[in-house]
Write a structure and sequence with these properties.
Elements lengths: L1 H8 L4 E2 L2 H4 L16 E3 L4 H14 L3 E4 L21 E4 L6 E5 L4 E5 L4 H10 L2 E2 L12 H6 L7 H4 L2 H4 E8 L4 E4 L13 H4 L7 E9 L1 E2 L3 E9 L2 H15 L3 E8 H10 L13 E9 L6 H15 L4 E4 L3 H12 L1 H8 L1 E4 L2 E2 L5 H15 L4 E7 L4 E8 L1 H5 L4 H18 L15 H7 L2 H14 L17
Parallel strand pairs: 2-4, 3-4
Antiparallel strand pairs: 1-2, 5-6, 6-10, 7-11, 8-9, 8-10, 12-14, 12-15, 13-14, 13-18, 16-19, 17-19, 18-19
Helix pairs in contact: 1-3, 9-11, 10-13, 14-16
């Protein structure tokens, strides 16, 4: 098998030494480790297709790997078969920007392109790709599509699903689905590409993507606002929507307990207040029109809210440097949490109008059942996505007889609160191997049944990332 794989991808495309493979077998928080026969890194779609045909012939599972920045163990290789450990398939060598169409506002790229590199290429062409998140220096386009990633810009531009105009996908049997035309209008039946967005590599390997670009918004304004509670933040959002509308590019709500960890663990952090607010709202407005007075809009709305008591205090960034300092604090959350302890991170979404109620209800459950934990909240308030985090110290975590069972118990408790508000337990992180039981427990039974039938159609031999989304079948 190794020799045949080497014949396809060459020496540069094959890693079989256990030491060299180690980083590919563990999630980035180092909480779960798998095993694989080797790591394969094809350099073209044709090579991916050849690898897939060989794996289908040999019955070897395939575990796609992007930048390995996920939080749900979706890239950890676990086949469940000692004699068929499978391969890790990395597209790191497929990292070309194939084309940028300024008039059509489309970038066609390899799936291994790093998000930060796409940002740079789009900017050079006078456009922007408006997906932004803390891991953009390592996250790859294929992985972002496979998990339907979100980030801070969803309030204006939508998640990855709204930014994908076409896909190139290698199926489990090695056939290639070419859907890269990127037409704005195409009413020719089932839009199959949507099945692969958010499928976490369980239906095929995304090798290329046509992505929607947007005009740049060089005119921006930023504010850091102190509010008393999440309900006040929701009221502020409504007021900002009335005045700024689609100019709102980011609207983030963060608890003091979360920013305290950032201050503790991350260098070059500047808070623009004497003390960290009980609740912070970070706002970004953006416009293609340089004559629009965005800072004046921010000052007007915040001034009105200060008079009404909706806002406790506010700082409007006086420069791009200060704005960068604001967002550096926000984007340092994951790094700080990794250093602090063991965080059970929830990826809940409810209607924005229900965010305050959800947080209050979750606080009641957390205080009653998990007094050992400190809670943090990081919320994309503009789209209702609440990362409700229970942070446990490592010593407590190490004392647990079964950490995986305990984590699931915590997750179920918070997910049940979200279900009371008709929310979802996975908004942008995916399901991976971490939440398969929760998907089966909480999904509509008919929807869950149809998902299984789609999986069986595209991957009848269960070789594509088995155990992700849906539990792997025994045997």
């Amino acid at each position: 098998m190794l020799d045949r794989l080497r014949d396809i991808v060459g020496d540069k495309g094959l890693i079989a030494d256990p030491g060299d493979m180690a980083p590919w077998l563990t999630d980035w928080r180092e909480r779960r480790k798998g095993r694989a026969l080797c790591v394969v890194a094809p350099a073209s779609t044709a090579e991916v297709a050849a690898v897939m045909r060989l794996c289908a012939e040999e019955g070897q599972p395939v575990f796609p790997a992007g930048g390995n920045t996920g939080l749900c163990f979706g890239a950890v290789p676990e086949s469940g078969h000692a004699d068929r450990p499978g391969i890790v398939l990395s597209l790191r060598r497929m990292n070309k920007i194939r084309a940028i169409d300024r008039a059509g506002n489309v970038a066609t790229v390899d799936a291994g392109v790093v998000l930060g590199d796409l940002h740079a290429a789009a900017a050079e062409a006078g456009r922007q790709f408006p997906l932004h998140l803390g891991s953009e220096g390592s996250a790859q386009i294929g992985g972002l599509i496979s998990t339907n990633a979100g980030g801070t810009g969803v309030v204006r531009y939508g998640p990855m699903r709204d930014l994908v105009a076409g896909l190139e996908v290698v199926l489990a049997d090695g056939r290639v689905l070419d859907d890269l035309a990127a037409l704005r209008k195409d009413n020719t039946g089932y839009m199959l590409r949507h099945l692969f967005i958010g499928a976490e590599g369980t239906l095929g390997i995304i090798t290329g993507a046509a992505l929607r670009l947007h005009p740049q918004t060089p005119n921006t304004a930023h504010a850091w606002v102190s509010v008393a509670d999440p309900a006040a933040a929701v009221a502020l959002l409504a007021a900002m929507q009335d005045r700024a509308g689609s100019a709102i590019q980011a609207f983030e709500l963060v608890s003091a307990s979360q920013f305290e960890l950032v201050v503790r663990h991350v260098e070059r952090i500047r808070i623009p207040f004497d003390a960290i607010p009980a609740w912070s709202v970070l706002i970004e407005l953006g416009s293609e029109d340089g004559s629009t007075g965005l800072s004046a809009i921010l000052e007007e709305v915040l001034g009105d809210c200060l008079e009404k008591g909706t806002v406790v205090d506010a700082v409007v960034a006086a420069s791009q440097q200060q704005a960068g300092e604001f967002w550096h604090v926000r984007h340092s959350v994951s790094e700080a949490n990794k250093k602090e302890g063991i965080g059970v991170v929830h990826d809940v979404a409810v209607r924005t109008s229900d965010v305050a109620g959800f947080i209050a209800a979750a606080d009641v459950v957390a205080a009653a059942r998990y007094p050992q934990a400190v809670t943090q909240v990081v919320c994309h308030l503009g789209d209702g996505n609440v990362h409700y985090i229970l942070m446990f110290q490592r010593a407590f975590w190490a004392s647990l007889p079964d950490t995986e069972a305990f984590a699931l118990e915590v997750e179920q408790a918070v997910h049940d609160v979200a279900a009371r508000f008709r929310g979802t337990f996975s908004a942008e992180h995916g399901v991976g191997r971490k939440l398969t039981e929760e998907l089966e427990r909480l999904a509509d039974p008919l929807r869950y049944e149809l998902m299984g039938k789609v999986k069986a159609l595209f991957d009848p031999h269960e070789l594509m990332n088995p155990g992700v989304l849906l539990p792997a079948k025994a045997g």
